[in-house]
Amino acid sequence: MTEILNMGDTGESQMSPISNFRKGFSLIELSVALVVMGLLSAVAIPITVNVSKNQKIMQAENELQNIRELLIYYYKTNGKLPAHEPNNTLPSPILGIPEQYKNDPIKGIPYLYFADTISAADTIYVDNTPLGAISAVIISAGPNGKFDGENATPSDGRFESTGTGDFDDILYYVCELDLTETPEAWGVCESYTLILRNKDVVENRALYARIIRDVATTYTIPWGQTLTISGLEPFACIQLSRRNNYGSAIEVYFFNISSYNEGNDCTVEVIKYSQLSGTTHPLITGDLHR
After folding, report:
1. CB of 112 within 8 A of CB of 88?
2. In angstroms, rounded to a whole number, what is the distance separating the alpha carbons of residues 35 and 46?
3. Are residues 54 and 176 in the same domain?
4. Which residues form a coiled coil (predicted)?
5. In whole angstroms, what is the distance from residue 236 CA to residue 252 CA?
6. Roughly how many angstroms between the first and final C-alpha of the chain, as a whole number?
7. What is the pLDDT of residues 106-163, one digit of tens each?
8. pLDDT tier at 279, thresholds 50, 70, 90
């Protein structure tokens, strides 16, 4: 007897691959897929957040180093350190620092600045080490958004660069030894020439530059081109951005020209490669004109 298969309305065997495919995914298969997607998200999201946090920490360290150099130059020009504001913040107008850089890029909290401006018996201590009669500290509150340990009570003049628990402050200091170096060794010039090359490796786009004390003038540097500015004063603060309105904090970078000069040639030559976007290239090179 010939066996007649029930082909159903579609004329296909219930055991055929086509009919199985049309049944869709089983609950088990969907569950497995959701678990895999959840695991991937659990890995990817923390990595993205961590990269962003590290970029902001690098930016804060860069800014603190530039501010430190500005403080040293201010002392060599004026014979004293600028006093801290009543709320222990930076005197930005005196130093020529853009107002937006009074706050760290990590949490947007103002940098803590404390200075001992009078040569006397008292001194600032960092990690229980005296910095000398005239000294200063600049501190970022770090990713946790608060000043930790001894940094939480600046009035006593005692600070720390490392601690326990969730301590994550970033501290830079100026000690008395920094201020007693000879000007010749430090390499301060009366005026500087800036040579700035735009070699952005992320996008072939223009770079915009301006001098903080003359924000009305913006220089446009097409990709692959070079900008040369002469007659810059040692206090000149250079601001760079990929946006002509300098609106995005993550895409704005600034540096003090005298702090970038290496040697005594009074010419600072730098190459701008990319923004802080996780690439292997630095944001901007050091002085190549030595």
Report:
1. yes
2. 17
3. yes
4. none
5. 16
6. 99
7. 999 999 999 988 766 578 999 888 888 789 999 999 999 999 999 999 999 999 998 8
8. very low
pLDDT tens for 192-242 read 899 999 887 777 888 888 886 666 788 999 989 999 999 987 767 787 888
Instruction: Give exposure, 208-242, as e/b (b: 16+ Cβ within 10 Å).
Output: bbbbbeeeeeebebeeeeeeebeebebbbbbbbbb
- In-domain check, residue 27: no
The domain boundary, picked from 147, 181, 215, lies at 181
Of 126, 159, 181, which residue sits at a domain end?
A: 181
Q: Which amino acid is at 29?
A: E
**Apex CA 54: angle with CA 212 and CA 60, to 5°?**
30
**DSSP per-residue codes, 181-197:** S-HHHHT--SSEEEEEE
3-state secondary structure of 249: helix
Q: Kindly state the DSSP code that residue 102 receives in the 8-state scheme.
A: G
Query: What are 12's two structure tokens?
Result: 């296909």
Interior/surface letters 139-161, b for 16+ CB within 10 angstroms, e for the rest = bbbbbeeebbbbbeebeebebbb
Domain of 84, in residue numbers:
50-181
Is 61 in the same domain as 170? yes
Q: What is the pTM of this model?
A: 0.54
